[in-house]
Amino acid sequence: MKTIDSLGDLRGKRVLVRADFNVPLDGTTITDDGRIRAALPTITALTGAGARVVLMAHLGRPKGQVDPAYSLAPVAARLGELLGAPVTLADDLVGPSARAVTAGLADGQVALLENVRFDARETSKDEAARAELAGELAALADAYVSDGFGVVHRKQASVYDIATLLPAASGLLVAKEIAALSKATEDPARPYVVVLGGSKVSDKLGVIENLLTKADRLLIGGGMVFTFLAAQGHDVGKSLLEADQIETVRGYLATAAERGVEIVLPADIVVAPEFKADAPATVVAADAIPADQLGLDIGPDASVAFADAIRDAKTVVWNGPMGVFEFAAFAGGTKAVAAAMVEATTAGAFSIVGGGDSAAAVRLLGFDEAGFSHISTGGGASLEFLEGKTLPGIDVLTH
């Protein structure tokens, strides 16, 4: 995979950088700037080399329409604060404002184009439409750097097509992500433990299937656990259940048993009558969830068992919270997993927090990011990497 060094002398060159600034917002306030901070090493490396940096990114799902609610204005403001220098936001992506802003950059300056997903061609399945947008983007720059790991699994104009039109390289973040995930998948130190949570089994079918050939131990929590419990014949009350995946999960349980892969399911569950922060929480056995309750976290006994199963790991990968960590009453399982991962890391394990909600939970629950070997910025991308899939945005940089 080509790196920034392969682009040669960048002084005075306009470098188009695809970043991942899809940050959570409360109105116009950024509630977690982790993805912006993750882009800083690449941006400062380029500005330090005298490049004129033109950033592009998406925010939310504006569905190919201009929607002020998804403007990157808050990102430009926060990025300027972090860089200690103004970041000019163009009013459009490839229009008159974008052309004027990029043409006006001096060496070492940074600009940001407006949301790439305001243009429907960005995510189009029509290759000609994507290529057209990529051509308009390429006209703004002399080189391209891919640094939005959260989108490298997408065949989109600003991720894939653009890299075929300009001298292209991976940014420091993408290179770091690939190195970390490769370390956890190609020849992991053992025991290799994977913790999977989040809401749906269907989101993680491929990764579970692939990990059954690689991991020593799979810990299953979050909403997806109820499909596993149902596959064992247990009632799950009002809990999230993907009934159409029960047979698939039974197959996974059988495969794990055949291969000697340990699947750890929670012995107890924290339940409540409704999905609310102040709903009365009760702990019940995982095989005795009342019909009028829904599970919102793994229980205290499960938290202890999960922590014990993590502590002796030499490689541990975590993707997906154990419960509704945003509600204090249902954050215990996620806290226990994070704390055990920090302990394992301190003891010498290589640990990865796999993006998205897991990374947000680490920060929200007050854990020091330095306590983990690597916190990924890409939930879907890291999952597809763990599945063993080819990521188009990476593949295009290797040719």
Number of strands: 17
Distance between the termini: 8 Å
- Number of contiguous helices: 13
**Share of helix, binned:** 25-40%
Radius of gyration from CA coordinates: 22 Å
Strand order of the largest sheet: 5-6-4-1-7-8
Based on helices, strands and strand pairing, what is the structural class? alpha/beta
**Rough outline:** elongated
Low-confidence stretches: none
Encode the helix/strand succession as letters.
EEEHEHEHEHEEHEHEHHEEEEHEHEHEHH
Oligomer: single chain
Rounded average pLDDT: 95
Strand content: 15-25%
Largest sheet: 6 strands, parallel
Secondary-structure blueprint:
Elements: E1 14-18, E2 25-26, E3 29-30, H1 34-48, E4 52-56, H2 73-83, E5 87-89, H3 96-103, E6 110-112, H4 127-138, E7 143-146, E8 168-170, H5 172-185, E9 192-196, H6 205-211, E10 217-220, H7 225-231, H8 246-259, E11 262-264, E12 268-272, E13 282-285, E14 294-298, H9 300-311, E15 315-319, H10 332-346, E16 350-353, H11 356-364, E17 374-375, H12 379-387, H13 392-395
Parallel strand pairs: 1-4, 1-7, 4-6, 5-6, 7-8, 9-10, 9-15, 10-11, 15-16, 16-17
Antiparallel strand pairs: 2-3, 12-13, 12-14
Helix pairs in contact: 1-2, 6-12, 7-8, 9-10
Keywords for this structure?
6-stranded parallel sheet; elongated; alpha/beta; 399 residues
Question: What would you say this structure looks like, in words?
Answer:
It is a single chain. This protein is of the alpha/beta class. 34% of the residues lie in helices and 16% in strands. The chain has helices spanning 34-48, 73-83, 96-103, 127-138, 172-185, 205-211, 225-231, 246-259, 300-311, 332-346, 356-364, 379-387, 392-395; strands spanning 14-18, 25-26, 29-30, 52-56, 87-89, 110-112, 143-146, 168-170, 192-196, 217-220, 262-264, 268-272, 282-285, 294-298, 315-319, 350-353, 374-375. Strands 5-6-4-1-7-8 form a six-stranded parallel β-sheet, with helices on both faces. A six-stranded parallel β-sheet has the order 11-10-9-15-16-17, sandwiched between helices. A hairpin with a 2-residue loop joins strand 2 and strand 3 (29-30). Helix 7 packs across helix 8 (246-259). The radius of gyration is 22 Å and the shape is elongated. The chain starts with 13 loop residues before the first strand and ends with a helix. The model has no long low-confidence stretch (mean pLDDT 95).
